[in-house]
Amino acid sequence: MAPVPSPVASASPMPTVAGDFGSKANITIPPGQPSGQFVVNTLSEGEGATVAKGDWVTINYTAKDWTSGKDVGSSYDANQKPQLFQAASGQLVPAFDQGVLGHKVGSRVLVVAPPAAGFGAKGNPTLGVNAGDTVVFVLDVMQAVPQDSTIAGAITEPPAGMPQVKDNGKAAPTITVPAGQAPPTDLQKAVLVKGDGKQVQAGQTVVVQYTGVLWSNGQQFDSSWSHGGAQALQVGTGSLIKGWDQGLVGQTVGSRVLLVVPPALGYQSQSQAAVPPNSTLVFVIDILEAV
Questions:
Q1: What pairs with residue 82 in β-bridges?
Q2: Using an 8 Å Cβ cutoff, are 34 and 114 in contact?
Q3: All structural domains of the chain
Q4: CB contact set of 29 (below 8 Å; sequence gap of 6+)
Q5: What is the reported pTM?
Q6: Distance CA 277, CA 289 (A)
Q7: pLDDT score at 153
Q8: Which secondary-structure segment (H or E) carries 141?
Q9: H or E stretch including 191?
Q10: Is 9 in contact with 40 (CB distance < 8 Å)?
Q11: Rounded distance, CA 78 to CA 62, Å?
């Protein structure tokens, strides 16, 4: 594949865009051929945080094939949803991956993507993009979550008998398991910080910070803080342990949730890395985004 060109601020001729941030864009292709440049222009600038490399970015998009003049698709269409990805990590085509860098949340951005910044020499037959086509994208930057994000807000103490949690800012919280107390046999959950964001739905991808310890000895066995920060995980589909699916679906973005997961809803009789068989697990989970 050809090297990805660096994006430039402008080129001629340029598509025009009608519509406002937060709605499907109407893209008009000008006469003539595209310049072959990878173009990123700000149509309207937001007032939110600036997207940096590694941030978990949520965008809505509208796309049109410059070469054929056909609409490629839009996340604003029925049964579609925004894209969630890490900026400049290579997860998506460079038009998305690099097109959001340096732009503020709330911005609408026009991207003209030649094949090297779009779908490459092979195109994307599923979307109707032929080999060598230039594609025009309008990106609405909806949210950006840095990898060191955490939940802020007044903390509600867990109920008596549940583990206690000490906030450590931009580090894993300290979780203290009640001494000499038998673990519960059912899922226990407590909302330590109640977020005012949207409700998490089954099938969504959530961006979370989390820390897990064993009830048996209080030892930490996993934490997002120890391997790169905030992680994106799909909930409610069986890809996670049942305790997470049952404990997170229905919570709201911006919440910090304490879960005590019995073995039947965790790893059951199987060992998992540092988790012995039949372990009761304790998690503190910050829900940072849901798409």
A1: none
A2: yes
A3: 16-144 (3.10.50.40), 164-290 (3.10.50.40)
A4: 15, 64, 66, 69, 136
A5: 0.92
A6: 32
A7: 84
A8: strand 135-145
A9: strand 188-193
A10: yes
A11: 13
pLDDT of 1 above 60:
no
Tokens (6 digits) for 135: 């594609």
Q: Are 11 and 65 in contact (CB under 8 A)?
A: no
- What's the pLDDT score for residue 282? 98
Distance between CA atoms of 74 and 137, rounded to whole angstroms?
A: 9
What gap in Å lies between CA 77 and CA 88, rounded to an integer?
Answer: 26
- Give residue-wise pLDDT tens across range 115-161: 999 999 899 999 999 999 999 999 999 999 999 999 988 899 999 99
Each residue of 158-203: pLDDT tens digit? 999 999 999 999 999 999 999 999 999 999 999 999 999 999 999 9
Cβ-proximal residues to 153 (8 Å cutoff; 6+ apart), any chain: 193, 194, 195, 254, 256
What's the whole-number average pLDDT of the chain? 94
Distance (Å, whole) CA 127 – CA 138:
16
Q: Which two tokens stand for residue 205?
A: 């991808």
Helix (H) / strand (E) element for 244: namely: helix 242-248
Q: Token match 């799909």: residue?
A: 234
Question: How confident is the model over 205-229, as a mean pLDDT?
Answer: 97
